[in-house]
Write a structure and sequence with these properties.
This protein has 16 helices and no strands. It has 441 residues and is mainly alpha-helical. It folds into two domains: 201 residues, Clc chloride channel; 197 residues, Clc chloride channel. It starts with a helix and ends in an 18-residue tail after the last helix. 55% of the residues are buried. The C terminus is likely disordered.
């Protein structure tokens, strides 16, 4: 890459970072407000069919190619065609807020990634960036959106490269130091975008959740170097690998179930606007049959009005959760996203992993809070096939509130857990499902 070209792309990635960070800050602030509204007015759940109708009508008559979502952005990175439409950002932002206002179980990463990719595509068109460089800027948009919405710039950059396959586009495939040299410019550009976006969110005083993990202390016994402790660490890593296999199977179950629901609704329900209405009705039935208010919304924290609900924070703090809590969240999210509601899958997958890790901790004689932290990132790793990004995410997400995380005694077994989960996550990834309509103008 020429020096002048590289400097220009670095400037573009910085601009993408600023705009993506601002968009993420607006989104996070708005998401917190609509979540608070839903907690205060639980009857909003019964408006979910209306929310589904509005979302479906917007998708059918306004969405066009923007309905391709994250899959469309990745397709444009791998094989550029018609580009990413600018209207993707406002449509996914409004659609996600409507989903959460009425209690739909979706996440925020999909929204942030799509806003970042849409912003990057607009910038590339406005600045007349050559077609060969547009995929790099789209990857920067992914990195900026992902890194800023979770406060994880390192994981954001790694995620953009892993999920896009940008550095594997050479024919024939290149390995070794040559591959590293090719990967360095995209990695640096994505890192610039992610760091700038994350800093922008911080400057706008929009904070991220601090996750406190039960089991981490200043001296919890995991970092000693005696022979006996070394053997204990290896056994701990082996158990983490076993748990990683189960996390990977859970990720595969989610991907299969979401895709099955999506395929079935497309096959048997001709009207696109009707699909989220049907999904909303199913969600209300699930809530009534399971008393499952825990499984609505993001699930990061329990509502102050229902402190006994299961949440990610509760699982990490080793609160006792039901053996099937992870499955119910998985099902609620598969129905929500599979039927066409807007939002991502990652935060619900954090919930699935944390809840499953919490219950597996007892079965495997491991600290429930620590295994919940591993599950938090490992189920996502299994669903997205991004073990490097997920390992980095564990450090960035849990490190600020749990200094003991920054030790090889936690990082190594977490990496083992994430890589095993990625290998056993099933034949497809959450971003491999066919884009909704990438043909319509």
């Amino acid at each position: 890459m020429l020096r002048r070209q590289y400097a220009g792309l670095t400037g573009c990635s910085s601009i993408i970072g600023v705009v993506a960070g601002f968009a993420a800050a607006v989104f996070l602030w708005s998401l917190d407000r609509v979540t608070q509204l839903h907690w205060q007015h639980s009857w909003l759940l019964y408006l979910l069919p209306l929310a589904g109708l509005l979302s479906g009508l917007a998708s059918q008559y306004l969405g066009g190619r923007a309905e391709g979502g994250t899959e469309l952005i990745l397709a444009e990175i791998r094989q550029p065609k018609l580009g990413v439409p600018g209207r993707m950002a406002p449509l996914v932002l409004i659609g996600t807020l409507i989903t959460h206002l009425c209690g739909g179980s979706s996440g925020r990463e999909g929204t942030a990634v799509q806003m970042g990719g849409s912003i990057a595509a607009l910038l590339a068109r406005w600045l007349h960036i050559p077609a060969r460089d547009t995929p790099l800027l789209l990857a920067c948009g992914i990195a900026g959106g992902f890194g800023s919405v979770f406060g994880t710039p390192l994981a954001g950059a790694a995620f953009a490269l892993e999920v896009s396959g940008l550095v594997r586009k050479t024919e024939p495939p290149i390995h070794g130091f040559r591959q590293l040299s090719l990967a360095f410019p995209p990695l640096l550009l994505c890192l610039v975008a992610a760091v700038v976006a994350d800093r922008t969110v911080e400057l706008l005083s929009v904070g991220h959740t601090e996750y406190r993990v039960a089991g981490f202390t200043a001296d919890n016994g995991y970092h000693h170097t005696t022979a006996e402790e070394f053997i204990a660490q290896l056994l701990f890593a082996a158990k983490a690998g076993l748990a990683g296999a189960l996390f990977g199977l859970a990720a595969g179950l989610f991907t299969w179930l979401r895709n099955s629901i999506r395929t079935a609704l497309r096959r048997y329900v001709a009207s696109a606007w009707l699909r989220p209405v049907i999904g909303a009705a199913l969600l209300i039935l699930l809530v009534k049959s399971t008393s499952g208010t825990s499984y609505l919304g993001l699930g990061v924290e329990a509502s102050p009005l229902r402190p006994g609900d299961v949440s990610i924070c509760g699982c990490l703090e080793a609160a006792e959760v039901g053996w099937l809590s992870w499955f119910w969240k998985l099902l609620f999210t598969a129905v929500t996203v599979g039927s066409g509601f807007k939002g991502g899958e990652v935060t619900p997958l954090f919930f699935v992993g944390a809840a499953l890790g919490n219950v597996l901790g007892t079965a495997l004689s491991m600290p429930p809070g620590i295994l919940a932290a591993m599950g938090f990132v490992a189920v996502f790793s299994g669903a997205a096939r991004t073990p490097v990004a997920c390992t980095l995410m564990a450090i960035e997400v849990f490190g600020p509130a749990n200094p003991a995380v920054i030790t090889i005694s936690f990082i190594f077994p977490t990496a083992v857990c994430c890589f095993v989960a990625a290998k056993l996550g099933g034949p497809g990834r959450i971003y491999d499902s066919p884009a909704v309509s990438v043909i319509r103008a």
